[in-house]
Specification:
Structural class: alpha+beta
CATH superfamily of the largest domain: GAF domain
CATH topology of the largest domain: Beta-Lactamase
Helix content: 40-55%
C-alpha cells in the first residue's frame, strides 16, 4: 500500500467531526488565512478529504473563503458568544475592565485557563497599538504569563503539575522555566494578591494580574494590565487590578447564583 493510500485509509477512519476538528485546528494566531495547500499540510489530511470537508464547512458558515484563502467563518464567532466563558464572564467583567483601562490607560486583558494554557477572552487596548500582544481567542503560556500565574496560584496541585509536565518554554531570557522557580513564584502570589510577568513573554512588555473567583470560592479567571515595562509597575497598577478583579468576582458570582 502506498503512503497516499494509507493516508486516505486513515482519513476514511475519521468521523466528520474529527475531520472538521483537524481543519479548524489548522488555524491559529499566526495562520488566520490558509490556501488549500497550507490547510492540507496543517490539518494532516489528504487533499481530497480536506477539500470535501472544507467545502461542507463553507456551506455551514464554519469557514469563509475570500480571495481563494480559507478562514474561520462568522457562524463560529456567533456561536462562541453563547459560551458561558464569553457570555457570563464577559458580562460580569466588562464594566470593570473598562474602568481599569480608564484608570491605567494600559491594555487590559481577561483570561481563563484552557488546559495548560490561558485563553484570552477579552481585551481592551484603547488607542495605543500593541501589535506584539495576543488577540482575543489566542492561547498564552500559563507558566510565564501573569494571567496564567494568577490562576495557577489559587488552583490545585494537579493543574500546576500538568503545566509543568507540558514543558516550561523559555520565551525570553527572563522566562521562569524550571519547576522549582515556578512553584516558588506561585507560592508568593497569594500573599501579595498579584501575579507579575517581567518581560517573560515578550522583551519590553510586563504584566500585572489578579485572580477572579466564582460563587464557590474557586478561581475561574484572571484580569491583567499589560504594556511597556516602563509603564507597568505593580505598586502603581496593582491596587486598581485587584479592585477590578474583586468587583468582577462579586458580579460573576451574582450571575452564576441566579
Amino acid at each position: 500500500m502506498s503512503p497516499a493510500e494509507r493516508d486516505t485509509g486513515s482519513a476514511a477512519g475519521l468521523g466528520a467531526l474529527d475531520r472538521a476538528a483537524a481543519i479548524l485546528g489548522a488555524f491559529d494566531e499566526q495562520h488566520r488565512e490558509l490556501t488549500l495547500a497550507a490547510l492540507v499540510a496543517r490539518a494532516g489530511l489528504p487533499r481530497s478529504t480536506t477539500h470535501r470537508a472544507a467545502d461542507k464547512m463553507l456551506k455551514l458558515g464554519w469557514l469563509d473563503k475570500p480571495a481563494g484563502r480559507y478562514r474561520i467563518g462568522n457562524r463560529l464567532f456567533e456561536l462562541s458568544g453563547l459560551a458561558p466563558v464569553r457570555h457570563e464572564l464577559r458580562e460580569a467583567a466588562l464594566p470593570y475592565l473598562q474602568d481599569l483601562h480608564h484608570a491605567t490607560r494600559i491594555t487590559v486583558q481577561l483570561g481563563v485557563l484552557h488546559g495548560t494554557q490561558v485563553l484570552l477572552v477579552e481585551k481592551i487596548t484603547g488607542h495605543r497599538p500593541m501589535p506584539m500582544l495576543s488577540q482575543v481567542g489566542s492561547l498564552l503560556p500559563a507558566h510565564c504569563s501573569a494571567l496564567g500565574r494568577a490562576i495557577l496560584a489559587y488552583g490545585d496541585e494537579a493543574t500546576v503539575q500538568a503545566v509543568i509536565d507540558a514543558g516550561l518554554e523559555r520565551r525570553t531570557p527572563r522566562t521562569i522555566c524550571t519547576a522549582i522557580a515556578l512553584r516558588r513564584e506561585l507560592a508568593a502570589i497569594p500573599e501579595r494578591g498579584l501575579a507579575v510577568d517581567r518581560e517573560e513573554g515578550n522583551i519590553g512588555i510586563s504584566c500585572v494580574a489578579a485572580p477572579i473567583f466564582g460563587p464557590l470560592g474557586t478561581v475561574v479567571a484572571a484580569v491583567s494590565v499589560t504594556g511597556p515595562t516602563a509603564m507597568v509597575r505593580a505598586e502603581r497598577a496593582g491596587p486598581a487590578v485587584r479592585l477590578a478583579a474583586a468587583a468582577t468576582s462579586r458580579a460573576y458570582s451574582g450571575i452564576r447564583s441566579r
